[in-house]
Amino acid sequence: MALPDVSLRALLEAGVHFGHQAHRWNPKMAQYIFGTRNNIHILDLAQTVPLLNQALVQISDTVAKGGRVLFVGTKRQAQEHVADAAKRSAQYYVNSRWLGGMLTNWKTISHSIARLRKLEELLSGTDEGRGFTKKERLTLSREKDKLDRALGGIRDMGGLPDLIFVIDTNKEAIAIKEAQRLGIPVAAIVDSNCDPDGITYPIPGNDDAGRAIVLLCDLVARAAVDGISRAQGRSGQDLGAAVEPVLVEELPAATPASGDQIFEKLAAPRGAPDDLTKLTGVGPQLEKKLNDYGIFHYWQLAALTEAETVTVEADLKTAGKAAGWASQARELLA
Prior knowledge:
Blueprint: H1 8-13, E1 18-21, E2 33-37, E3 40-43, H2 45-64, E4 69-72, H3 76-88, E5 92-94, H4 106-122, H5 134-151, E6 163-166, H6 173-182, E7 186-190, E8 201-204, H7 210-234, H8 284-293, H9 298-302, H10 306-316, H11 322-333
Parallel strand pairs: 4-5, 4-6, 6-7, 7-8
Antiparallel strand pairs: 1-3, 2-3
């Protein structure tokens, strides 16, 4: 593994350069703004590329030293991609709601995580949990689901993170303040309406568009995987002789992620079509639209390359969704 290459073209295609309307800007972002077009601020990608590279190097170094990286993105369009990137890189995430004191009051959070584990044990059919009535089990199940949404991504973290990666600095202001108070470095995407002060590794870019979030989360995940590979290499571990397969490249790449399959549109399904409504955001109407386009099976979505994903999203006018479908399809086929 090596650090992922950051190309200006990839950032442009993902719309990373688009900021907010000019009247919504934060003057502290002036140094990162290239200009204005149609009353929309355009961010200077010539600065984004080296700053992003700097952040990726730091993330890789942190993981290589045995550190933990916490992905934070609770806005709707980022939730799925943040969780997916963190899981694929063996890191941790918060994508539902940032609980006040999640870093500065870690002792209390640890107790809540212990409670979550206890509830899972009770509801798993152990002797201790069999004596509950149906109503009691329902109450415990709801409590477990609530804790899992809030703490599921950090349940195995075991302590404070060594670096946090934030999608929206305005929405995650509390998380950033807690990290600053504890001296934890912060790498964050800063849009034209954000305040870059206090961000250790600012990455000027679009923090709203789905495609931009997918690309940046993927790059950070790849940097973390690179750190894991370096740590294993330094320890003298023979990766080829490992009993368990070592996580290296489960990440979306320019080549199909589903074995020898390549993406192709079909005139009709091969056998029974897959239920595409299991994918996030796909209802009966969108499933019909996908079928009309020639997509009937999970393997077709799983085989999408980055370039093909962009084409499909443009043809179907579903910006930022196809990459998420491809990732879910790979999980369903695993």
